[in-house]
Records
---
Amino acid sequence: MFRSAIPYARPGQVIGLFGGSFDPPHQGHAHVTLEAMKAFGLDQVWWLVSPGNPLKLKGPAPLAKRLRAAGEVMRHPRVEITDIESQTGTRATADTLAILQRLYPQVRFVWLMGADNLAQFHKWKDWRLIMDSVPVGVVARPGDRISARMSPAARLYGKYRIDGHARHLLGRAHAPAWCFVNVPMVDVSSTEIRTRGGWGDEVLPE
C-alpha cells in the first residue's frame, strides 16, 4: 500500500526506481517490477508516481487517485509506492535522482524503464547526466528491441552495455552502465485502459 513518506533503505542496498505517471497503474507495471527485481538483483523497487510527465501535454488523473490505485495493484513487501517527486518538488528524472543520491549516499540506485523509453531517452532533460549517474535497467518485450538499440542513447553508450548473462551485477556496477533484459509482457497498457474508458473509481485488475 502507499505510504506518504520517504522510504527506508539500508546502506549498501540496491534500489530500483520505476518512475511514471501510472495513469492508471495495472498488472503490466507490477509484472515488469517483479521481473526487473529478479533480473537485476534488486533489494527493493520504489515506484515514483509522478505528479505529471513533462513530455505529455495533457495532465494525468489526480495524484492521490493514482497512488491509491498503485497501492492496490502492486502488493509486495519489497516494493514501495511513493510520491517522492511530489515531496521534493521535482519533475525531471535527473533532478529527482540528484536529490535521492544526496538523501541516500550509501544506497545504490538503478533506474528502470521500458525499451520504448530508451528509444526516446535522448529527449529527456539531462538524459546523459542520468546515464552517468546511475546504472539503467531496460526491460524489453521479446522482439521489441530494434528501435531501442538504434536509439541515440544506445549508440552513444554502447560500450557501457552489460551483457544479459551478467544482468544480476547491474546494481553493483559503476555508472555509466546499462543492460537489456527480455521478459514476457502482460498485454495491457495505461493508454489502452484510458481509451476504452476503464479508468474509473475502481482499480482495474488488468
---
Amino acid sequence: MSEPSPTPETQPEIPESPVTVETNPEAEAVTEPAPPADPLEAALAEVTQWKDLAYRNAAELDNFRKRATREAQETRAFANADLLRSLFPILDNFEMGLEAARAESEKSMIFMGMSMVHRQITDFLREQGVQEIEAQDKPFDPNLHDAVSQEVSPDVPEGTVIRVTRRGYKLKDRLLRAASVIVSGTPTQAA
C-alpha cells in the first residue's frame, strides 16, 4: 500500500525566512543617473548624446576615407616595383652588350641602335619615377650601397666608393636595388 499524497491541508508548513537584500544607495546613484524631472530636459540630453555620437562617427568615417585614399595612392605609386626590379638585371646585361659594341666601333650600326634602345629604356625608367643611386666617389652608405669588397687606395679617403660594380635604383623614396660598390679602406698594419 502506498501512502496517500499530502493534500494542501495536510502539508506541513515551512516557516518563511525573511530575505534581506543589502543595498548601497551610493552605488545605485553612480550606476543609474537620476532621470531628469522635466521630459524636455531628458529629450535635450538624448539629442546631445546622439549629436556627439554622430560627430564622432563622421570624424571616424572621414579619417577612414583619408587613410583609404592615401593607401590607394601609395599602392598605385609602388605597384610596378616588382616589375621594375625584374627589369634591372636585363638592363645590366644590355649595358654589358652596349659596352662590347662600343669596344668594337662607336660608328657601327649595332652600337648606334643599341644606344637608342638604351636611351629609351632609361627615359622609360625616369618616367616611372626610377632614379639611379649616385655612388661613385660618394661616402659609403649602407642604406643605399652594398659593399662587395674593400680596396686600399692612398688617394681616396677611407669609406669612399671607388667603383660601382652594379648600379642601384630607387623608386621615388624607396630603395629598389642597392648599388654594389667597392669601398676604399686603410692598409692593414703587419704585426
---
Amino acid sequence: MNVLHISGSPKGERSDSRKLAARFLERYRVRHPSHDIRHVDVFDGRANPGFGAVHAFHKLAPLFGEPQTAEGKRAWVATERLIGDFDRADKILLSCPMWNYSVPWAMKRYLDNLMQPGRTFGFDAETRQHIGLLRDRPVQLILTRSSTDEDDRTDFQLPYLRHVFEAMGLADIRVLSACATTWRSAEDRQAYIDSFTPQLEHAADAL
C-alpha cells in the first residue's frame, strides 16, 4: 500500500498547507507504519516537467489523424513518467494553498501533465462527457485559503480540483479546508492551524 503526497506550495516549512499535511501524515504513519509514502513537490521541475507546444501537438495528433513526431515522443517520456507515478499510488494526498482564488501555477502544470485524453480520461462525442480511465481510490485534499469559504462563488480551487479528479475516474474525494489563514500575529495563525489537529487525525484514520 502506498500513498502519494502532492505538495502545492513553494514555501517549505513555512507553508500552512504543508504544516497541515505533515500533521496528517504524522498520524497516518502511526496507524499504517508499513505503508510507503512518496512525495511530489510540484515546484520541483524534475518531478513536474514543462508542458508546451511539442507536448500539445503530440497528445492531439491521434485525435486529428496526424502522425506523432520523434520529437514529441521524446518529450512525452517525462509526462508518461509523471502519469505512471501517480497511477501507482493506492491513495492520494494533495495539499495546496489558494493563489488568486485558484491553485498555484505549478499545481496547474502538474495537472496539465496528468490529464491526457486516451490515457487518464476519455470523451464521449455524442454526450460530450468525459469518461475517467483511472481506477478510483481515496483522494484527501488539504486546502488553505486566506479568506475564501468553500461555498464562496470566488472559490476556483476546490471545484477545479474536485472536477479534475472526477474527470479521471477518482470519485472518492475527501476535503479539509482551512479557510481563514490570515491573522494579526504568528501566534494566532499557529493557533488556528493547530485547531485542525482533531480533524486531521480523524481524516488520517479514515484514509
---
Amino acid sequence: MRNLTSRKHPGTFIDIITKINQTITGWINYYGIGRMKTFISQTQQWLNHRLRQMILKRWKKPRTRYQMLRKFGIDHDDAMKLANSRKGYWRLSCSEILHQAITKERLTKWGLKDMSQLYESRYLRD
C-alpha cells in the first residue's frame, strides 16, 4: 500500500485509486475471515491521510493550493493559511482545513472503496 500511495508515484489519480481498490478487495477477500474490524478502520484512516498528502503534493504551487481549496469550499483566510504554510505535506494533511476540503465522502465519490463497508458487506451478514 505504501508503494501505491507514494508521493512520487506517477500516473493519474484515477489509476492510483483503481490499483488501491484492487489491493483492498484482495485483502478483504483473503484476510476477511478473521476478526479485523479495528485493523480495517485504522488502515482506512491511514489511507485517507496518505491520499490527502498525495493530493496536496500534486498541488505544487501555493496559488494552485489556494485555488483548489477555494474550489472545494474553504473560505479565503483558511485557504491562504494552508496554501502558504511552510509545513510539510504529511503534517498539513492532518489539518482540519484539508479534512474539510477533501472529506471521506469526496474520496469515495472519486472512486475509493470504503474498506469497512466492503468488509461488512462480505463477512458481517446477519
